[in-house]
Amino acid sequence: MKLKTYIVEDNATIRENLIGTLEELAAIEPVGVAETEDDGKAWLTHHSSEWDLAIIDLFLRQGSGLGILAACHERKPHQRVVVLSNYATPDVRMRCAQLGVDAVFDKSNEIDALVDYCISQADSLDADTAHPHS
């Protein structure tokens, strides 16, 4: 089963490369993208049953990924929200944890870890689907 993934990233090159990499290596299905805080919040909250994973950049052309994280605080148990940022400092990681983020990945050196995370999430979705009442 593919992981329905929504990506908030304002750099088109990074976004396209990320989608290509994750589609190839991690069995994700992109369900949408946004470049701004407002677009990301609107889509994720109005399509709350249409995504399994949201990958969010913190520094956006308009607004901040932190606002999107706050908007996703109330989500279904299987839904995961992760941050992919060039600024994955200890302070940023702590703030993200306070907002209920499931993981933080650094764009410069943790893409492999993000791929592994997506694979493990897809596997756990498959397990839930195979055993819905376990």
Automatic annotation (TrEMBL):
Signal peptide: none annotated. PROSITE patterns: RESPONSE_REGULATORY (PS50110). GO terms for biological process: phosphorelay signal transduction system. Residues 4-122 form the Response regulatory domain. The modification 4-aspartylphosphate is found at D57. SMART domains: REC (SM00448). Keywords: Phosphoprotein. This is Response regulator. It comes from Simplicispira hankyongi.
